[in-house]
Amino acid sequence: MHRNSGFPLRSTLAIGGLVALTACAQLGIVVTRVDYATQYEPAEARAAGGGDHQMKVTVLGNPFDAPHATLEAAVIDSMQGSTSGIPINFAANPKTRTQAARFRVVVTFTPEAIRDPAKLCTAGEDIALAAPASGTVPLMSAFCSSDSSVSHAIARASDIDGTASEKLDALMIQLTLAMFPDENPHR
């Protein structure tokens, strides 16, 4: 017999999310801005990168003393399974292309000239990057459909000691969770 406990599932999920964000804030990880276009649709994200399909991820900038390919692999590994119930396979070089190939994610470490992460969808790979200041790593990310932002976020973390850092992993997990909610917040 199913009983209604009087505590809705959404409340439970919201409390869990708040606890996770509080824990990350204590680690020095802060997601400072998240925005979703009214057309954000989790089903499209699932179609673009779920099942046998892969969603392209472009990583720009590198604040660490490591090869770019190592950072790219660490970022994508952290993003896998971090999409709040939306199964998406992220890849630097997708092996499968679909009609949903217009979707992609752009992750930019230490962007200098861009203040609006939605502009990452049109910026290209020649974006101006700055050196990280005082041990803090700023990060912008956008989930793009062609040249438009479907969702985007800004985050930062301090004292990340490299590409194998648990703090970098936690930063990417929080950023991915923020960009890919399981429903459109505008509804």
Key terms:
disordered N terminus, 30% helix, 187 residues
Task: Characterise this structure.
The structure is a single chain. The chain is of the alpha/beta class and about 190 residues long. About 30% of the residues lie in helices and about 25% in strands. It has helices spanning about 10-25, 40-50, 70-80, 120-125, 165-180, and strands at about 30-35, 55-60, 90, 105-110, 135-145, 150-160. A 6-stranded mixed beta sheet has the order 1-6-5-4-2-3. β2 (about 55-60), α3 (about 70-80) and β3 (about 90) form a beta-alpha-beta unit. α3 (about 70-80) packs across α5. The longest helix is centred in the first third of the chain and has 18 residues, at about 10-25. The protein is globular and about 40 Å long. Residues about 1-25 have low confidence and may be disordered.
Oligomerization = single chain
Low-confidence stretches: 1-24
N-to-C series of helices and strands: HEHEHEEHEEH
How far do the termini sit from each other? 32 Å
The total number of structural domains is 1
Strand order of the largest sheet: 1-6-5-4-2-3
Q: Major beta sheet, specifics? A: 6 strands, mixed
Q: How is the topology of this model organized?
A:
Elements: H1 9-26, E1 29-36, H2 42-49, E2 55-60, H3 68-79, E3 90-91, E4 103-109, H4 120-123, E5 136-145, E6 148-158, H5 166-179
Parallel strand pairs: 2-3, 2-4
Antiparallel strand pairs: 1-6, 4-5, 5-6
Précis, in short:
The chain is α/β, with parallel strands linked by helices and 187 residues long. It contains 5 helices and 6 strands; from the N terminus they run H-E-H-E-H-E-E-H-E-E-H.
